[in-house]
Amino acid sequence: MFDALTDRFEGIFTRLRGKGRLSEGDVDEVLREIRLALLEADVSFTVVRGFVARVREATVGLELSGALNPAQQVIDIVHQELIATLGGETLRITYASKPPTVVLMAGLQGSGKTTASAKLARWFKGQGRNPLLVGADLQRPAAIEQLRTLGRQVDVPVVSRDDAIGGEGGDPVEVAENAIAEARRLGRDVVIVDTAGRLSIDQELMEQVRQIAQVTEPQYTFLVVDAMTGQDAVTTAENFHQALELDGVILTKLDGDARGGAALSVKEVVGRPIAFASNGEKVADFDLFHPDRLAGRILGMGDVLTLIDRAKEAFDDQQAEEAAARLMEGQFTFVDFLEQMQQVKKMGPISGLIGMLPGVPKELRNQEIDDGELGRIEAMITSMTTEERLKPDIIDGSRRARIARGSGSDISEVNALLDQFRQMQKMMKGMGLGPKKAKKGKKGK
Ligand code: GDP
Question: Where do the SRP54-type proteins GTP-binding domain residues begin and end (predicted)?
Answer without folding.
Answer: 273-286
